[in-house]
Amino acid sequence: MKIDLKSVSKKFNEQKIIDHREELEKAVTIFVHAILAKIELGEVHDKLSGVDSPAEVVINQYSRDLSDRLYNDEAKAVLDSLRHAFSSFAYGGLHQLFTRQENEVWYPRIVLDEELKPNDIDKLPGEIILYRGTDFVELNSETYGQSWTTSKNVAHDFAFKHYANQPWFEESQRLILSAKISKEHVYYSNQSREFEVVVDTSKLADVRKYT
């Protein structure tokens, strides 16, 4: 699993926030160093303590201080998404980073390229029928997201309900995709939460608009 740095760099180059690119890049460097220090020290944090780990303290404090200096609301929102991603990793590792990512606003793209445990992949059939609530841009570009679901109802809600209050939402551009994939190409499954299945998108078959 990794954070796709191309998605971060592309965001930093947007006209609305390019003036703060250097400050945001420095923040990412600080966040990465906090994570590396945690790993090098072999830090094991008690998640039930209610107290942030040392890495979370560094990430959250730096983010707060920098946010107070930023005059651009868009840059502040990007910083907060970065803070959320790195503090999630500091709290619960790769599993927390992937499963707790936010989709309502811009978020660094998280790529899963190996099996993420714990999971319930063993509950899935050999060939799986999947659904995904998305937009026509994804269908036409064939650049599919990794997170799908075995539930048509869940896909419908992601297509037409969950993001309906977002300024970018256009119902006429939303749709549900269906596809098939072999169980061997699944990286993660949680059939108790949104019936999510995360896949190697290059192995998807029979991708089409579901009606």
Per-chain topology:
Layout: E1 2-3, H1 5-12, H2 21-41, H3 54-69, H4 73-99, E2 110-111, E3 127-135, H5 136-141, E4 147-149, H6 152-160, E5 174-182, E6 186-190, E7 196-199, E8 205-209
Antiparallel strand pairs: 1-2, 3-5, 4-7, 5-8, 6-7
Helix pairs in contact: 2-3, 2-4, 3-4
Explain what you see.
The protein is of the alpha+beta class and 211 residues long. The protein has 2 domains: 110 residues, no CATH class; 89 residues, Alpha-Beta Barrel (ADP-ribosylation fold), CATH 3.20.170. The chain has 6 helices and 8 strands, in the order E-H-H-H-H-E-E-H-E-H-E-E-E-E. It has a 3-stranded antiparallel β-sheet with strand order 3-5-8. A hairpin with a 5-residue loop joins strand 6 and strand 7. Helix 3 runs antiparallel to helix 4. The chain starts with a strand and ends with a strand. The model has no long low-confidence stretch (mean pLDDT 92).
Structural domain count? 2
Q: Mean of residue pLDDT? A: 92
Strand content: 15-25%
Tell me the Rg in angstroms.
19 Å
- Secondary-structure element series: EHHHHEEHEHEEEE
Give the number of helices.
6
Distance between the ends: 33 Å
**How would you characterize the largest beta sheet?**
3 strands, antiparallel
Class based on secondary structure composition and strand pairing = alpha+beta
Determine the fraction of residues in helical runs and give it as a percent range.
40-55%
Q: How does the overall form come out from the CA principal axes?
A: globular
Low-confidence stretches: none
Main β-sheet, spatial strand arrangement: 3-5-8
**Number of β-strand runs:** 8
